[in-house]
Design a protein that fits this description.
It is a single chain. The protein is of the alpha/beta class. The protein has a domain at about 1-170 and about 200-210 and about 270-300: Spore Coat Polysaccharide Biosynthesis Protein SpsA, Chain A (Alpha-Beta Complex), CATH 3.90.550. The chain has 13 helices and twelve strands. The protein has a five-stranded mixed beta sheet. A hairpin with a 7-residue loop joins strand 9 (about 155) and strand 10 (about 165). It is elongated, with a radius of gyration of 32 Å.
């Protein structure tokens, strides 16, 4: 399991404890400059041989420029059978069994598993997050995460399925038939990371847990330039600068009445099974710890059928998003081509006028044309100035 973390001291140890109980053997984690005690927690797990810890100073842009791919390759070099892309506030919840058993059951011909996400909304208070946050969105329709088998040809821009591939991103049996120059009826280099047709895991996301944690997350986003992307981000930045960020956070928190209404309307559901499971997970650093618990079969846990339906929704959303990006790219390309054509036409017109002027200036008529003496021009200007003064007077 690979992570990038910064200032996640309130949740990182619970995350590691949960996933160790789920059968994850090793964690490759890059800390990007934590100052809240996260690094000290990770160092304890590093000494125990559970975490391979990398340290760097930089923001999300530095990780996007090869950092995530670097830790992914490192996990592969360390012998990982599957690489799970995770964040400190995400918990991978299998529909049955544990994660180790789930990934071992994926047939060899499939190299990627898509995992839809759901979110636990912020709740009042400052106690342990799992005790307070027991209600989640009913559907797993947040952007999906992914796990994949290691590859020497891995390329990725992020943890989502549309950002991960092996080898060339666009190749194989594509294109219009009339553009072929030879027969193409098989792939010499077929896709390596094919998404499995089963969706046995859902991701439980706990993004906002307390106001202090939310404020720190906003500050990190500001430092990374993420609050300038749209109107909502600029509103959050303005609230931070004006000291009104707690007002924004209060609008994100659901009180008991809002939760009850959401459950009645069907867009929220109680999932107490996560709290129960996390409380039963043993301390992986303790000697002779108890055996990992089983995932509760009740308590609001999603079924495999529900995860499958929401995974197909996520895939459809990805396809629509990519189609919109392609259409936007085509529109931008059309505007650029139109501008270039107008510019070429303008340049042709200017060249034509310049050529005409040069021909006129080089003609015998132009050289022999009658010229008004300079003294006449000075007299004309003097008369005009005097007329203007009289009008003003």
């Amino acid at each position: 399991m690979v992570y990038k973390v910064r200032d996640e001291a309130d949740i990182i140890e619970d995350n590691l404890r949960f996933h160790v109980a789920q059968g994850v053997d090793l964690f490759v984690i890059v800390d990007t400059g934590s100052v809240d005690g996260t690094l000290e927690i990770l160092e304890r797990y590093e000494k125990a041989g559970i975490v391979r810890l990398e340290r760097t100073i930089g923001g999300i842009h530095d990780m996007k420029s090869g950092g995530e791919e670097g830790i992914t390759r490192l996990a592969g070099e360390m012998g990982a059978d599957w690489i799970i892309h995770n964040d400190a506030d995400e918990f991978w919840w299998p529909a049955a069994g544990n994660l180790k058993e789930t990934f071992e059951s994926i047939p060899d011909e499939f190299g990627m598993v898509l995992t839809p996400r759901t979110e636990f909304p912020a709740r009042p208070g400052n106690g342990p997050f799992a005790d307070r946050m027991t209600v989640r969105e009913t559907r797993f329709r947040r952007p999906a995460k992914s796990a994949h088998r290691p590859s020497d040809r891995i390329s990725l821009r992020g943890p989502h399925p549309v950002e991960i591939w092996a080898g060339e991103p666009y190749r194989g049996l594509v294109g219009k038939p009339v553009l072929r120059t030879e027969a193409e009826h098989h792939e010499d280099d077929p896709l390596e990371l094919v998404i499995a047709p089963t969706f046995p895991v859902g991701v439980l996301h706990f993004p906002f847990r307390t106001f202090e944690q939310y404020k720190r997350r906003v500050e990190i986003a500001r430092d990374n330039g993420q609050l300038q992307r749209n109107k909502a981000g600029r509103t959050v930045r303005k609230a931070l600068e004006d000291g009104r960020l707690e007002e924004v956070y209060d609008r994100l928190v659901l009180d008991d009445d809002s939760v009850a209404k959401g459950i009645d309307e069907g867009w929220l559901i109680e999932q107490a099974s996560f709290r129960e499971y996390l409380a039963a997970c043993p301390d992986p650093l303790a000697d002779g710890g108890s055996s990992p618990p089983d995932i509760p079969a009740n308590g609001g846990s999603p079924t495999a059928d529900q995860l499958g339906e929401d995974s197909m929704y996520a895939i459809t959303r990805y396809l629509q998003t990519q189609a919109e990006r392609a259409a936007r790219h085509r529109r931008q390309g059309a505007r650029v081509r139109e501008f270039r054509q107008r510019l070429k036409a303008r340049n042709r017109s200017l060249r034509t006028r310049t050529d005409r002027l040069r021909r006129v200036e080089s003609s015998l008529w132009w050289r022999m044309r009658p010229r008004i003496p300079r003294s006449v021009g000075r007299i004309r200007r003097t008369v005009r100035r005097r007329l203007r003064r009289r009008r003003r007077g």
